[in-house]
Write a structure and sequence with these properties.
The chain is α/β, with parallel strands linked by helices and 344 residues long. It has 12 helices and 10 strands. Helix 9 packs across helix 10. The relative contact order is 0.12.
């Protein structure tokens, strides 16, 4: 199978199985032990939040941040791993209860920008120029709680300050339509790229598309990817799956919607995404019912499914597609795709 693609996942994808309705069901695994599993599972890149690298990041001095980030980088080097990105985890702080960049409290907005600058410093020490912004609480539970016009201006101002802080920085916006807030201000990749266009340096602001996030917006992930790819703005993907318009399930890639997974791989193949050197990230979680000794299969299976689908895309008889399109016989094309996926 193809080895053209580079794969990453975040250490939070090896989890204890807690959910909003129940406690952990598997023992916690130390970070160092998680990192040792990456190469064994066939992954090179590590997705990181700032506090994955440095606990209590708000309370550390610049010198402490640099020292602890360098020590973490040394661990990655020893394991043959590279950091894909660093993301400021703003949504878990009590300071960000009303949002971070779009909070009604000016002090909170100032904290969010400062915390993000700290994340940039960590990223630089770690050896990556990518900062992911998942704007988790940038929205409302009720529309009247915030001035939406001003909130978007706050977002642009925050991104501008981060771009000016580091002239080599690339910012990747990861959109999501809901959860944890009811109404997110940047719900789709179209919103993210429109926001990017309004910043002081649009060429350094791109997007990250997560399969489930697109599906939760009622959109096709492959079309969302194609939109960003056409603009040269798809700088990472988080592949997973979703069984309907529920909470963000982060199921194994291709497990619920194999045809959709095929089309996501197809659009990445058509664009030459592998040749960009950017990562195919996974954001998948083990089922809560999975035993501890089997709680890494979701990562292995997602990567294996992706690579099988790469081969399916590459081996599809394109002359059949061309003939069906020329004849406007899309029923025949549909059947050809389904037969190919089923190995008929």
């Amino acid at each position: 199978m193809s080895n053209d693609y580079r794969f990453s996942f975040g250490p939070w994808n090896i989890s204890e199985g807690a959910d909003p309705f129940g406690p952990p069901v598997r023992p916690s695994i130390p970070m160092a032990a998680k990192l040792k599993r990456y190469q064994e599972l066939g992954f090179e890149g590590v997705q990181l939040h700032d506090d994955d690298v440095i606990p209590d990041v708000d309370d550390k001095s610049a010198a402490e941040l640099d020292k602890e980030a360098a020590a973490y980088k040394s661990i990655l080097d020893d394991e043959g791993l590279v950091p894909e990105f660093v993301a400021p985890r703003l949504w878990e702080s009590k300071k960000g209860i009303d949002g971070a960049f779009t909070s009604n409290d000016e002090n909170c907005r100032r904290w969010a920008i400062d915390r993000s600058k700290r994340a940039i410093d960590i990223a630089n020490t770690m050896g990556t120029k990518l900062l992911v912004l998942w704007l988790a609480r940038e929205g409302t539970y009720i529309r009247e709680a915030k001035d939406a016009l001003q909130a978007h201006r706050y977002l642009i101002d925050a991104i501008n300050q981060l771009l000016e802080y580091d002239k080599d920085l690339e910012i990747i916006i990861e959109p999501k339509p809901n959860e944890p807030v009811d109404h997110a201000y940047i719900p789709t990749i179209g919103h993210a790229l429109a926001l990017a266009h309004q910043t002081c340096d649009p060429k350094r602001v791109g997007g990250l598309i997560e399969t489930a996030h697109a599906q939760l917006a009622g959109l096709d992930p492959s079309d969302e990817m194609a939109f960003a790819l056409a603009a040269g703005k798809l700088w990472s993907v988080h592949l997973n799956d979703q069984n309907g318009l529920k909470f963000d399930q982060d199921k194994t890639f291709g497990s619920a919607n194999l045809r959709s997974a095929y089309n996501q791989v197809r659009v990445l193949e058509l664009s030459g995404y592998a040749q960009t050197g950017r990562f195919v990230g996974l954001d998948v979680k083990a089922m809560r019912t999975q035993k501890p000794e089997q709680a890494l299969k979701h990562l292995v299976n997602s990567k294996e499914l992706f690579l099988h689908l790469v081969e399916k895309v590459r081996s599809f008889p394109h002359e059949v597609q061309e003939q069906c399109v020329a004849n406007r016989d899309y029923e025949a094309l549909e059947l050809a795709v389904l037969n190919h996926l089923m190995g008929v």
